[in-house]
Write a structure and sequence with these properties.
Layout (H helix, E strand, L loop, with lengths): L7 H10 L2 H9 L5 H26 L8 E3 L2 E3 L2 H12 L18 H14 L1 H20 L2 H12 L5 E4 L15 E5 L2 E12 L5 E8 L3 H4 L6 E7 L10 E6 L10 E14 L5 H37 L1 E2 L2 E2 L4 H39 L1 H4 L4 H41 L9 H10 L8 H28 L7 H18 L1 H4 L2 H6 L1 H20 L4 H26 L4 H9 L6
């Protein structure tokens, strides 16, 4: 298979599923040539396709090359530096940054396409440009105008890169454990502490989550009292800041992505947002990063699938290409279906996020203030926000687990050669594994989603699915009935078993997430089914397989209770009872 980065799934979603007329009407009013605007978007994405083709070719054969620490300076491998320069020269960095600071103001959906394309070309490079864009977006949202003018044009030009500095030895998923301290001294702020596992830790600008020294003892162990600080390597007066990379980690995969220990020795920093409000500000960056990691995972999975399919088509055994073997054909088909399913969920979520942002800005505008439907629109926006909080962890959970499965199958299809150190199939799997870990493990994502379900997002989602697919019943009666049956018979029946015990609910968080994802993806694929025969076949295959999975998960949940946890305790030797 030839490389394709701006793929048909992206093109279909841009042309048929994103509501661009409403998006531009809310953002700019009636006088917008929607077709022209969308064509501009597609031109950017086609350019990205061309650049990613070059990046992928330049990265081949260099996967093993590691980041180095030379005289305190982080040095990425030459192919990473070259790939970054290609993106920078083409103007393809910080695409979501607004035009006020020399960005494109690209919608989240299209930025997601961009990240997926870059990840397909080089997963390590994607972490660098992804964090660069994420840091710039947070500065744009929470920084003072002085900070924005000082840093954002340089982000947009590619001169500056960024990192997100959260993790500490005692503070991984639980950010309440953060002890890095920020102290105010005569109106200036200084950061002291150590951060570990910092992706792109050699960046020019660090966004650091630190505990306010003034409330340190009172807030310790909680996420209150945390402030988000912009800590540059070079201060505005040109002096070197007291920030250093102490170590660069050696990893299983994404070797070209710097993962660093970063030390702050009274480094000067600048407050983003309000003092003590850093956790909320960082959540914005983290949630966008989670969607970015989902895009990264899909890009890696796509690369692995293409490599496996090409190998299966040319590898001859028993006088025929192994792609003709039914089991191999089945594996490849599942890989293709699952990648498209993960895309369906991610693209739907990103499009919803874009609509919510357009509606939010409209309601803040003079036009929105005078709209007689303002109250109704505000209610719609609140509903969108609830669904986005629910869908975001689902996207990250689903796409990354799919990527792990797809890349593992890629090794299997390659057989013995897939296990060799030089095998690209093995490289893709090694790169994929981290996606289920950083920006919150799959288990953390499932627990976050469960929390949103308890706040009403589950029933809102199921109601939305019913409303969307019911008009399709005349055209696809059996498929619509299977999805509705999964919701009404199985999901609805299993929920009461989770209500009585929070620990039992957490034990089944992944199962519940999988059930919701299955019907949500089924609905999105049904909405795309009329666009081509291939999409119809995809929807039918997914629904026939996954509605059975919904039933199996529901039966498993309904058949148990919290005593299952006690049994696990005995098996693990945690209890003598």
């Amino acid at each position: 298979m030839t490389d394709e980065f701006f793929n048909t799934d992206m093109q279909l979603f841009v042309d048929h599923r994103a509501d661009w007329p409403r998006h531009f009407r809310l953002r700019r009013g009636a006088e917008v040539d929607v077709a022209e605007e969308v064509e501009t978007f597609k031109t950017i994405l086609r350019t990205c396709d061309q650049v990613c083709t070059d990046i992928a070719a330049g990265a081949r054969g260099h996967w093993h090359e590691e980041v180095r620490l030379v005289d305190g300076r982080v040095v990425v491998p030459p192919h990473i530096a070259s790939g970054y320069e290609k993106l920078r020269s083409a103007g393809l960095v910080c695409l979501a940054l607004s035009a006020d600071y020399n960005g494109y103001g690209l919608p989240v959906l299209l930025n997601c396409f961009y990240l997926e394309m870059v990840a397909q070309a080089d997963a390590s490079l994607m972490t660098i440009v992804g964090l660069q864009a994420g840091a710039a977006t947070d500065i744009e949202k929470y920084g003072s105008e002085e900070l924005k003018q000082r840093y954002l044009p340089r982000f947009a030009s590619g001169e500056l890169q960024g990192s997100m500095d959260l993790t500490e030895p005692q503070a991984g998923s639980d950010l309440g454990g953060i002890v890095t301290r920020v102290t105010e001294e005569n109106g200036r702020y200084f950061v002291d502490g150590e951060k570990i596992f910092i992706t792109n830790g050699g960046a020019d600008v660090h966004l650091v989550l630190a505990r306010d020294a003034a409330t340190f003892d009172r807030s310790k162990g909680t996420t209150t009292g945390l402030s988000l600080m912009l800590c540059p390597l070079v201060l505005p007066d040109g002096t070197r800041n007291r920030v250093r990379v102490a170590r660069v980690e050696s990893k299983m995969g994404i070797h070209g992505s710097p993962t660093c220990v970063v030390e702050f020795d009274h480094g000067e920093a600048f407050l983003l947002g309000r003092r003590g409000g850093g956790f909320r500000a960082m959540l914005d960056l983290m949630n966008h990063a989670r969607l970015g990691v989902a895009a990264q995972a899909i890009g890696v999975a796509e690369a692995a699938y293409r490599e496996a399919r090409a190998y299966a088509a040319q590898r001859v055994q028993f006088d025929a290409p192994i792609i003709q073997q039914p089991l191999v054909k089945s594996m490849l088909t599942l890989m293709a279906i699952n990648i498209q399913a993960a895309r369906a969920l991610l693209y739907r979520t990103c499009a919803l996020l874009d609509q919510a942002e357009a509606l939010r800005l409209y309601l803040q505008s003079e036009r929105g203030a005078a709209d007689p439907q303002r109250a109704t629109l505000q209610k719609e926006l609140d509903g969108m926000a609830n669904l986005i909080r629910f869908f975001t962890p689902l996207c990250k959970f689903y796409a990354t687990e799919i990527s792990n499965d797809v890349t593992r199958k890629g090794i299997q299809i390659h057989g013995g050669i897939g296990y060799m150190a030089e095998s690209r199939a093995g490289h893709y799997h090694s790169d994929s594994i981290i996606t289920t870990i950083y920006e919150g493990t799959s288990e953390i994502q499932a627990s976050f989603a469960l929390k949103e379900m308890s706040r009403g997002a589950l029933f809102a989602t199921l109601e939305q699915i019913r409303d969307e697919i019911e008009p399709l019943r005349a055209r696809y009666p059996e498929l619509v009935e299977m999805v509705c049956g999964a919701i009404n018979t199985w999901i609805s029946a299993s929920i009461p078993a989770l209500m009585g015990d929070p620990q039992y609910a957490l034990l089944n968080a992944k199962r519940v997430c999988e059930m919701v994802i299955d019907v949500l993806v089924a609905a999105e694929l049904l909405l795309q089914a009329s666009l081509s025969e291939a999409k119809h076949l995809l929807a039918a295959s997914f629904i026939n397989r996954h509605m059975l999975a919904v039933e199996a998960n529901a039966r498993r949940i309904s058949s148990g209770d919290a005593s299952r946890i006690k049994r696990y305790d005995r098996i693990l030797g945690l209890s003598d009872d």
